[in-house]
Structures are given as structure tokens and as C-alpha cells.
Design a protein that fits this description.
The protein is an alpha+beta fold and 119 residues long. The protein has three helices and six strands; from the N terminus they run H-E-E-E-E-H-H-E-E. The longest helix is centred in the first third of the chain and has 24 residues, at 3-26.
């Protein structure tokens, strides 16, 4: 074997070991508890919590759970999947499970804790 080949094998093995660790770090989930919905669209949700506003991207894979959510989704007749704008409103209290940070934050689950005007 040549010197280049002898060096390439350990470097390749190290890369294989480090790759899954880097991939799992990128997919780390975070929790934003007790936020208040400030605004929402079909693709974005802005929540105010702890004196700061955070904006999350949302899509069809974002799960919305909470009291009455299933009933509203069924009433919409969209195969049990209503748009997030049909389920939430400004002022609602929510917990958000998300991935990423900053502008790349994506809400994977939104838990409705209380509708606006209720405690």
C-alpha cells in the first residue's frame, strides 16, 4: 500500500463515525413553553414568549393538538387535516416543539393550551 492509501483509510473511518453525530445534532428538537400566538398564516406562526417574538415555519406535517382540535379538523372535511389558520388564532396560548434555530426554526408540533379569552 502507498502512504496515501494508509492515511485515507483512517480518515474515511473517522468521517463515518462523525457523520451520524452531526446529523443528529442538526435534527435536535426544542420546546418553547407557554407562548402566545401573535400572528399566523398558512406557512408561518409568530409566538410571543418570555418577552421575545419567535417565528416558526409550518407546513402540512406540523401537528396541531389540543382540546377541540380534532372536532374542528373533522368539521372542515379536509380528510381530517384542517389548515393551521382554521385551528389557531391570535391570542391563543401554545407550547411549540420545533427544530432548528433563528430563521430556520420549523414547528413540528403545536399544542393548544388555551383559546384566547380563556384561562
Amino acid at each position: 500500500m502507498t502512504r496515501g492509501s494508509l492515511l485515507a483509510v483512517p480518515v474515511f473511518a473517522l468521517a463515518l463515525v462523525a457523520w451520524p453525530a452531526a446529523a443528529s445534532a442538526a435534527a435536535k428538537t426544542h420546546l418553547l413553553p407557554n407562548g402566545t400566538v401573535k400572528s399566523l398564516t398558512a406557512t408561518a406562526l409568530t409566538v410571543s414568549a418570555h418577552g421575545k417574538d419567535m417565528t416558526f415555519s409550518v407546513d402540512a406535517k406540523t401537528k396541531v393538538i389540543g382540546k377541540g382540535i380534532g372536532t374542528k379538523a373533522d368539521a372542515k372535511g379536509k380528510e381530517g387535516k384542517a389548515a393551521i389558520t382554521d385551528l389557531l388564532a391570535a391570542g391563543d396560548r401554545v407550547n411549540i416543539v420545533y427544530q432548528g434555530t433563528g430563521a430556520a426554526a420549523h414547528a413540528t408540533r403545536v399544542e393548544l393550551m388555551a383559546k384566547s379569552g380563556t384561562k
